[in-house]
Write a structure and sequence with these properties.
Layout: E1 6-9, H1 19-34, E2 38-41, H2 55-65, H3 89-101, E3 105-108, H4 112-124, H5 148-156, E4 162-165, E5 172-177, E6 181-186, E7 194-196, H6 204-214, E8 219-223, H7 230-240, E9 246-250, E10 253-254, H8 263-268, H9 275-280, H10 285-293, H11 308-314, E11 325-326, H12 329-342, H13 345-358, H14 365-375, H15 384-387, H16 401-404, H17 411-422, H18 432-446, H19 450-462, H20 470-477, H21 479-492
Parallel strand pairs: 1-2, 8-9, 10-11
Antiparallel strand pairs: 3-4, 4-7, 5-6
Length: 494
């Protein structure tokens, strides 16, 4: 690609950053970096009524946590700022006036009541989707129907108005999408989009076209939901005499139960919906990034694990899917497990120690490092080191109900006999090899399987039916703790 690549991620601060928004940011970042280009963050805050306090900070924090550093944006000013649309207001007014002067847009003075009357009238006459368009505009209160003097008078008197795009009645609008190929829309299906609202603020449609041009954006990579708005944007580029950027519309993220992954569906299926939730629930950022990269894209081979730098090398738009991608939460946990497994215990230690402290335990560093090393292959998330490994710090108060189903009528007798075999081991003899040898002796003597000893022993010592390798865990707990817990279990589980 010869041209210099500049892409933008342009969220609205109307709430916390959605997981779909983070994927859009990721694809923009990967594309920019693959082509040695520039990744711009632009805050589209023109809808002041929906502005949410703290949303912009959350967007920036989520990007930084994910490793998606933007090159230009709020607080990282480049040559194309400001990067908040609310600070660019005068620009939009100027171009809106230009469009009116050149006959591509018009002033509309219709009140909310008049707009409702128009819609009611059309619905009653059998129009299922009434809109302000080339047909209805000529019966409304606007600068196309009112005398020039009347229009000027209303403007001078400060009457409220909006600026609307004058969409041609019969025109095919065709453009090439980098992911979907050639796309065409008939203009008769489009409404005369409001470009400038009555408060003087632009709508998304006007602002994003002007900003993408002035910021020299080469490629617009955004969600599929904006595909139907693109013909209006193409008209604006044409009317302003500008070349449009290349367009790429990403596939929807789908719910496992079908349909778009909405907030309601995500909640019902236990899927965290905002990037903030993944930070708070202590997912590994590398795992989430790797998972999101594959949510609508693949490198064309069987590989699945890639660092951010590797994804940059591999990413191309021609490998992005057209069809929706299903959010598989189990797959995300698989990625998370993989990244935890690969991290050295020393790197995980500060986070695990902090979680331990929150849970009211403060083990010695060496002891905790051994626990992390032992449990790394068995945990899905970083807090599991403590929540599933609490038995390393305190005796089990109760026994897992599922695990107790494995405690059979003869389990007490088997565990008692095992206890007899290990009770005389010295502290330095209390090792994995000797603990296993005692099990093998017992299985031979009683002619039973390994599991008949190991499962009830695990329940007695840990209170659980799952966890890290049993004998290394017992060795780490030590002789006194192990024997005390086995005796307690024999008493409680008669």
């Amino acid at each position: 690609m010869n041209e210099s690549v500049r892409v933008r991620f342009a969220p609205s601060p109307t709430g916390f950053l959605h997981i779909g928004g983070l994927r859009t940011a990721l694809y923009n970042y990967l594309f920019a970096k693959h082509h040695d280009g520039v990744f711009v963050l632009r805050i589209e805050d023109t809808d002041q009524s929906r502005y949410v306090e703290g949303a912009e900070e959350d967007i920036i924090e989520s990007l930084q946590w994910s490793g998606l550093d933007f090159d230009e944006g709020p607080g990282r000013e480049g040559d194309f700022g400001p990067y908040r649309q609310s600070e660019r207001r005068d620009l939009y007014q100027q171009y809106a006036e230009q469009l009116v002067e050149e006959g591509h847009a018009y002033y509309a003075f219709d009140t909310p009541e008049e707009l409702n009357d128009m819609r009611d009238r059309l619905e009653k006459s059998g129009n299922p989707s009434p809109k302000y368009d080339a047909v209805t505009r000529m019966s409304m209160q606007n600068s196309l129907t009112l005398p020039q003097e009347e229009v000027e008078k209303r403007l001078e008197e400060g009457e409220e108005y909006v600026v609307r795009l004058k969409v041609p009645r019969r025109e095919t609008i065709r453009f090439e999408d980098e992911i979907r190929g050639f796309v065409s829309f008939e203009s008769k299906g489009l409404d005369d989009q409001v470009l400038l609202k009555s408060d003087g603020m632009p709508t998304y449609h006007l602002a994003n076209v002007i900003d993408d041009h002035l910021m020299e954006i080469s490629h617009v990579i955004r969600g599929e939901e904006w595909l139907s708005s693109t013909p209006k944007h193409m008209l604006l580029y044409k009317y302003l005499g500008w070349e449009a950027p290349r367009m790429a519309h990403l596939p929807l993220i789908m719910s496992p139960s079908g349909g778009k992954l909405s907030k309601r569906k995500a909640e019902s299926e236990g899927i965290p919906i905002n990037a903030k939730d993944y930070r708070e629930q202590k997912y590994e950022p590398e795992a989430l990034v790797n998972f999101l990269a594959y949510l609508g894209w693949s490198p064309g081979d069987d590989s699945e694990i890639h660092s951010l730098d590797e994804l940059v090398e591999l990413f191309t738009l021609d490998r992005v899917s057209k069809s929706g991608a299903v959010f598989n939460h189990k797959k995300l946990l698989w990625y998370n497990e993989n990244y935890l497994r690969e991290k050295p215990a020393g790197e995980l230690y500060p986070r695990v120690a902090a979680i331990a402290k929150e849970e009211g335990v403060e083990p010695e560093k060496e002891y905790l490092l051994e626990i992390i090393e032992l449990m790394k292959d068995r945990v899905s998330k970083v807090e599991d080191f403590i929540t599933q490994g609490m038995f390393f710090f305190e005796d089990p108060e109760e026994y897992d109900k599922k695990a107790l189903k494995k405690w059979k009528d003869d389990s007490g007798e088997i565990v008692r006999k095992y206890l007899e075999k290990i009770v005389d081991l010295g502290e330095d003899e209390f090792t994995v090899d000797n603990l296993k040898a005692a099990v093998n002796e017992l299985t031979d003597e009683m002619d039973i399987g390994f599991g008949k000893v190991a499962m009830p022993l695990r329940v007695a010592v840990t209170g659980q039916g799952f966890g890290p390798d049993l004998f290394p865990a017992i060795e780490l707990l030590g002789k006194d703790t192990t024997i005390s817990r086995v005796k307690t279990a024999l008493e409680r589980l008669k």
